[in-house]
Every structure is written in C-alpha cells, then in structure tokens.
From TrEMBL:
SUPFAM superfamilies: Actin-like ATPase domain, Winged helix' DNA-binding domain
Gene3D superfamilies for the chain: 3.30.420.40, Winged helix-like DNA-binding domain superfamily/Winged helix DNA-binding domain
InterPro entries reported in the protein's UniProt record: ATPase_NBD, ROK, WH-like_DNA-bd_sf, WH_DNA-bd_sf
Recorded family membership: Belongs to the ROK (NagC/XylR) family.
Pfam families found in the cross-reference section: ROK
Natural source organism: Paenarthrobacter aurescens (strain TC1)
The protein, known as: Transcriptional regulator, ROK family
C-alpha cells in the first residue's frame, strides 16, 4: 500500500508546485494568503512548497513588514517573490532556410533573438549540429546569460512529433539528424522536440491574438501549410503526433496540395506575367518573372493592380476551402494565419470571411498573427517554460550554488 502512496504524494506535490509558480510569475511580491486565493491550496501546503522553492532557488523570501495586510496571530505575513533570473530557457526554430533562437528568463521575457540563414537539408548532420551550437552560443552571449543557466531547450521542426517528443516520419533528414540527442550530448541540456505549427499555436495563445481562446487553429501558411490545434486549451497530437497534419488537402476539391500562400501568390503572379498582362508586377520584378516574390504581389495589389488583385482573390478562395475543411473537422472558435506571410495575409481576410461559410457550417473567426517570423521560437519558449513549471521540484536553477540541499 505504501509503495503506491509515495509516488502519488510526490505527483500531487509537483502539480501544486507548478500551480504556485504559474500564480507567482509576473505577480511581483505575494503573500501566503494571496497564493492560497490564487491556487485554492491550503496554508500549510502553500508555505511548505514556498519553503522548498526558496531552498531550490526559485523564490526569494523578503523580510517581514507589518502593514503588509496578511497576519497570522499578530505576526506579519511571509512575503515571496519569484526570481525571474534564476535560470533561462532556449527556443529554437529549425526552418527550411534559416534557424532562429530565442533566450528567455523564467518570466518568459525574451532576452535575445538570433536568426541565421541556413539550408539545413543540404549539409551533413555534424555541420547542422555545429550551426545549432553557434546560434545557441550567439543567443546566450547576446542575452548575457551563461550556458549552465539553461534548464530546458525546445526545438521546433517541420515534421510530426509524438507526445513523447519523437519525430515520426520516414524523411531521411530527420533519420540522420537526432536533434535531441546531439544537443543534449554536447551541452547537457534537457531538450524537447515539437512540431513547428504546434509551437506556433502555443505562442499565439500565450502572447498573440488568441489569448484566452481555448479552441484554436493556427496555420503556418508561407511556402507550405501546417496547423497546430488546441481543443479546450489542450494541444492535440493524436495517436502518433499527426493531429493537424494537412496532407488530406491533396484530396480537397479546389485545394489539391499543401503549398501555402507565398507559393501560390508567387506562382500565379508569374503566370500573369507570362501571359503578357499589363501589370505593375512587371516593373516590380524588373521584367524577370523568376525574380517575382509574393511580397511584390501583395504590394501591387495594395496599389490597386488588377492582375495582383486577381491573384490574391484566387489565393483567398483556396485558403477559404482549406479553412472550411479543417473547421468542419475540429470546429475551432478562431483560425489564425501565421508565419512569414502573416502581415501581408491580412489583405486576404475580408474575402476569406465571406467565402469560408460556403465550405463549413461552423465558420470560425479569422485573424492574422502579429508575432512575425519568430512565432515558432516563441512557442518553443512557452513549451520549455511549461516543462520547467511541471518539473520545478526536480530542476535546480544555477543561482543555487552547486544545487546544494537538493535532496
């Protein structure tokens, strides 16, 4: 009987510690009574966990001051403050053409962001690992924090990832590049792995236009389409990590594949040029269709160019079909278009809002993300912080010298 009780007690204690840290992050100085109100925990539990978190270096206890508003038998309240600088986390986005890393403190405040152009798919695994080392070192140096302060690193990849952080794909790239093992072996950091669109969803709900939204789809919609889905505030993975994968769009009439907004804006813009249509796109690309970019198409459309507007109407219609299909499946309250095209894609929203109801009986609200290119790395920060909160009693900030009294 006792062998089953101890783990259960420890699990409850970890859950309570996680709730305490969430309540304290960004709250400033708090008293025991305030923590009881925020978490629903008893005074004895609150004080016990605070004592342990102080010992581990997560909290600082301030000197008692009468008049603080919380007394026990005439004695002033014990007051605590969360130590934002106790440790740090890193969020990394491994994209097709670049890698972005963000270093943040325990409050989730970004201390640095570094982006490095890099086509990771065309180089050996060791060289990819060397580039990851360099960008992480640059980000830590820019943030002014040491490598031994890092408690967790979360890495976003463009592949299905299971709940256990395993890449579930037969792509040779990921078979030859075990990110978690390589980074962990080189630095001793705890490394998490997650799908890039899933991380984008975490970021959008944390700091973006989806704050407070529990039923959410975030679509990375640049060159390719990918989606991260939250239901009742929970990130969904499915049995093998494939929840939100959009390969089924190959079979959706009027969509046909998983290429994104930037791809088709460019492709259809070039078709307009090849047709000899009089358009501002000609001047923007210097008469060379191969030099045309999606950004140029959006720019010409903003200036009222008819060919560019026709292209964007086609893109919006295609996206309405894609959003209609996924909305029929998961019925989100909000769908957010994110990634490199998000700022420009705002021009597509009015047309999509009109057309989405033609493809689903449960049309969601539509929005574009304002989090920019760093959305996946930002979501990786949230992912790493969630891990640290959940394991707070097992992790020891570098601020505690040699983690003494850890056990």
């Amino acid at each position: 009987m006792q062998t089953g009780t101890a783990p259960s007690t420890q699990l409850v204690r970890r859950v309570n510690a996680s709730a305490m840290l969430k309540a304290m992050r960004g709250a400033g100085v708090v008293t025991g009574t305030e923590l009881m109100a925020a978490t629903g925990l008893s005074r004895a539990t609150v004080i016990s966990i605070c004592d342990e978190l102080v010992r581990l270096g997560w909290l600082q206890e301030l000197e008692n001051q009468r008049g603080a508003g919380d007394y026990v038998k005439g004695r002033p309240a014990r007051r605590f403050v969360f130590d934002d600088s106790a440790a740090s986390v890193i969020g990394i986005d491994i994209g097709a053409t670049k890698i972005t890393a963000i270093v943040a403190d325990m409050a989730g405040t970004s201390l640095s962001q570094v982006t490095m152009p890099f086509r990771a798919y065309n180089v050996p695994a060791d060289e990819r690992a060397d580039v990851l080392d360099k960008i992480a070192a640059d980000a830590l140096d820019k943030a002014g924090v040491s490598a031994d302060s890092v408690l967790a690193v979360s890495v976003g990849v463009a592949a299905p990832v299971s709940r256990d952080g395993e890449v579930l794909t037969a792509q040779e790239f990921w078979k030859s590049f075990d990110v978690r093992r390589i980074v962990s072996e080189r630095h001793g950091w705890h490394v998490l792995l997650e799908n890039d669109a899933n991380l984008a969803a975490l970021a959008e709900r944390w700091q973006g236009s989806a704050q407070g939204v529990d039923n959410l789809v975030v679509m990375l919609a640049g060159d390719r389409l990918g989606s991260g889905i939250l239901e009742s505030g929970r990130l969904l993975h499915g049995q093998l990590g494939g929840f939100g994968e959009l390969g089924y769009l190959d079979n959706v009439d009027g969509v046909g594949d998983t290429y994104g907004i930037a791809h088709y804006a460019t492709l259809w813009g070039r078709e307009a040029l090849d047709a000899g249509t009089e358009t501002k796109l000609t001047a923007l690309c210097g008469g060379d269709p191969e030099a045309l970019t999606a950004e140029m198409v959006f720019r010409a459309a903003a200036d009222g160019d008819h060919s560019a507007l026709d292209v964007l109407n086609r893109v919006a219609h295609r996206m309405a079909r894609a959003i209609g299909s996924i909305s029929t499946l998961v019925n989100p309250e909000l769908v957010v278009i994110a990634g490199a095209v998000a700022a420009s894609a705002n021009a597509l929203i009015p047309t999509m809002e009109k057309q989405v109801p033609d493809f689903t009986f449960t049309p969601p609200r539509l929005a574009t993300s304002a989090l920019g290119d760093g959305i996946v790395s930002l979501g990786a920060i949230r992912h790493a912080l969630d891990y640290v909160e959940e394991h707070a009693l097992d992790l020891y900030p570098a601020s505690l010298p040699k983690h003494v009294a850890a056990g």
